[in-house]
Amino acid sequence: MPRPVITLLTDFGTRDHYVAAMKGVILGICPEAQIVDISHEIASYSIAEGAYTLSQAWRHFPAGTIHIGVVDPGVGSKRRPVVIEAGGHLFVGPDNGLFTFALAAAGKWRARHLRNVRYFHRPVSRTFHGRDIFAPVAAHLAAGVDPQELGSLVRTLTKFPSALPQKSGKSRCSGTVISIDKFGNVVTNITLSDVPWIGKSPFELRVAGHIVRDFRPHYSAKTTAPFLVQGSGGWLEISLAKGHASNQLRIHPGDPVEIQKN
Amino acid sequence: MPRPVITLLTDFGTRDHYVAAMKGVILGICPEAQIVDISHEIASYSIAEGAYTLSQAWRHFPAGTIHIGVVDPGVGSKRRPVVIEAGGHLFVGPDNGLFTFALAAAGKWRARHLRNVRYFHRPVSRTFHGRDIFAPVAAHLAAGVDPQELGSLVRTLTKFPSALPQKSGKSRCSGTVISIDKFGNVVTNITLSDVPWIGKSPFELRVAGHIVRDFRPHYSAKTTAPFLVQGSGGWLEISLAKGHASNQLRIHPGDPVEIQKN
Amino acid sequence: MPRPVITLLTDFGTRDHYVAAMKGVILGICPEAQIVDISHEIASYSIAEGAYTLSQAWRHFPAGTIHIGVVDPGVGSKRRPVVIEAGGHLFVGPDNGLFTFALAAAGKWRARHLRNVRYFHRPVSRTFHGRDIFAPVAAHLAAGVDPQELGSLVRTLTKFPSALPQKSGKSRCSGTVISIDKFGNVVTNITLSDVPWIGKSPFELRVAGHIVRDFRPHYSAKTTAPFLVQGSGGWLEISLAKGHASNQLRIHPGDPVEIQKN
Hints:
Three copies of one chain form a homotrimer. The first copy, chain A, is an alpha+beta fold. In chain A, 19% of the residues lie in helices and 30% in strands. Chain A has helices at 18-29, 47-57, 100-106, 129-142, 245-249; strands at 5-10, 34-39, 66-70, 81-86, 89-94, 109-113, 153-154, 166-168, 172-180, 186-191, 203-207, 210-212, 215-216, 227-230, 235-239, 256-261. In chain A, the strands form two sheets. In chain A, strands 8, 9, 10, 11, 12, 13, 14, 15 and 16 form a nine-stranded mixed beta sheet that branches. In chain A, helix 1 runs parallel beside helix 4 and helix 2 (47-57) runs parallel beside helix 3. The longest helix of chain A is centred in the middle third of the chain and has 14 residues, at 129-142. Chain B binds chain C through residues 11-18, 20-25, 27-28, 31-32, 35, 44-45, 73-77, 125-128, 131-132, and chain C through 2-3, 5, 7, 14, 34, 36-42, 53-54, 56-62, 65, 179, 181-183, 217-220, 229-233, 242, 244.
């Protein structure tokens, strides 16, 4: 039988002891768990960045994987801890919108409010539910506990205000920058299905005072001008060959993006 | 039989090959080891920060876990390499005070000077005992070698000059800042048991020119003033809701902290 | 049977979802794989730094380990994806010179052009061969697929322009700085075998306007002057006791280094 996989996504960083404490708790409950870090470098308290990063990673893991997400500015306050079954995977974390993008892709979901303290690490602190609630609950799930033992069903989940692109007729689309990756590629919330004429007709993309007119199949190009590329997650990205588009063009998350067919 | 767990805490960073070399050596000796990183971002040569971080993490791991600690400014000089049994766990590293806080919590200990070169990676370099002594010794322990084969007993260990808080009567306590976490929370060396009237009586905490009078149960608060909270490790912390207390208030490790009951 | 080990070296960083996506793909194909990170903090597009770091790490892993290397500025263009058998290990990545230093140490090699799409993650994107080609191929190898099923033999591999030191007679050697480690130690491409008189005769090393005359057995020294030490990888390094030699002496990768016997 394959070892159960548990992934971790947090804004804890890797300098402090927080992530290790969660892993220690998991291994104490489910020694055969295979723990994989998705990222611990989500900007502190940024539910949007956490939701985006998780949405890009979760579907590459095998069915049955348990994903712990902890970007939790409201820890200790009234927001609910939940477990969500969707797309053949399990998601464990606070009900604050962190799973919005993953669930939009996964389709149907079933969620439960984590209330059975039998599966918590006790005493539960007011400041570290990652260690005291989410890690032990995920480990018990990995060890075979049925989700229905963890709490009663929840009918609605908090949704992150989604920023879907707006189309105006068949030749215009307005979106925003949602992420900058380590290489400086500027990820927009616009996909090729929103602008199917890209790559076939001339176009103009406007962002932060720049105009981009070039669409390329990959990042390797012999031009010094910025170009558009379809990133591996499906979204359109603005890129500079061997450069850092975000820094050099001064484009930031939240900047508006306009694309128009010419 | 559960897989043996080996944790790693170093000041090596994760950019260079150092940590990977240690993991390679471990897996060559004990392929079934489950290796978990505690932190590799301890400030270079900071035994204090390493000792604090290890003390917060080790006790969450299952009994029998082997913890390798390598913050070792004296590598290659006369400081002794040791293995320490305490609290049902094993600690492997230099005898330079790195395990002081963990051992204070674990209680009774038994230590040995690592001298049996049969369990070393040879030739032993003068600059990288993490790879050549500590990783292979930990792996052999994980594979079942008895600690008494590794060297003879040691009667005293180097202690890190501990900075316990000082109480003056029943209404005052003086301590210091021992760590800043990734969120900017300012961790002091004072616990609620040192100042049991906190949360029940009015008080004033003075640090770096600021006065804090507010005690809160968790980090989620609707105030812009700094407040005191009991961190998940038990120590009192100075925090700003959704802010970075250390940067915004200019509080640094080593700063004195005074608490007085009003 | 021991679990197959797969290592990862990339310039992806650990903030984004890229590394996690690769690990998810691996575990979907070979659930028993033991995945170890070598480094994800190679400077973006720096094949030289990646080649150096991999060369220092790979040989510490057990025979049969599969090393994935992805520093790939040419992803999606014509450079070939390859698998290389050498020194009892397997290397999977782009044929762009990234494996040059490892292969120089490993000796004889046999390489194949990865062309059998049956072992790819489909559809193969133009921007993320780490996830779509290298991770799944490595996982299939770990699961027992024979390299000869992956593609036909390749006769030559792209070599990174190696920067071997130049000797002038028996008393001079010219080299360069190849890396700075996290502690600021300045790693040169000169080994003790190039200058066997070091440590026995007086010498002068010149770098970035500084003269170093002191050779020490390890990093722990009571001097404030820079000194030379043999690093754990065998190369000579310029170091400052408890200081950061690169920052304080303003020495950078690529700087020329001259050593002369006096």
